[in-house]
Amino acid sequence: MSKLITTTQTIGPFPHEGWRWAFESASAAGEIIIHGQVLDGDGQPISDAILEAWQPGANGGPIAGLPGLYRVPSGDEGEFRFALPRPTAHGAPALYVTLFARGLLKHQFTAVFLADDPQLAQSPLLSQVPSERRATLIAQAAGPGAYHWNVRLQGPQETVFFDYE
Fold this sequence. Notes:
Blueprint: H1 15-18, H2 20-23, E1 32-39, E2 50-54, E3 69-73, E4 79-84, E5 95-100, E6 108-114, E7 138-141, E8 146-148, E9 151-152
Parallel strand pairs: 1-8, 1-9, 6-7
Antiparallel strand pairs: 1-4, 2-3, 2-5, 5-6, 7-8
């Protein structure tokens, strides 16, 4: 029996090279910054991840014709940075994030909330996550207009990943 190659098997070890076109227009100024690192199960940085994010209710964004869509590669130390307008929808994620990285046979879905969101406790999505795991989805204040949030792929502080139907 012949097996077909799926799209997740063909991304290869060099997604930054294949997706370079997607990052060229992706830098934009924003009112807030969400930054952090993508880390593996041993806490080591993942230098070739791609984070694609969507901001609910956005009217603009860095990619022409795609309001609220952001796409950034991780750097040598797994670092990433999103610059975006302050979210207006309280209780909703600041960003819905899709993560692509080597070793993942299927991309992962997660979300990031801001710690100072006044309606964080009433979030319908966050309330579905066990209370002891919610912190993995909350970006903490790291200075004026800046938030820190790490994505951990495995381990005791693994980021919550969602299955969507």
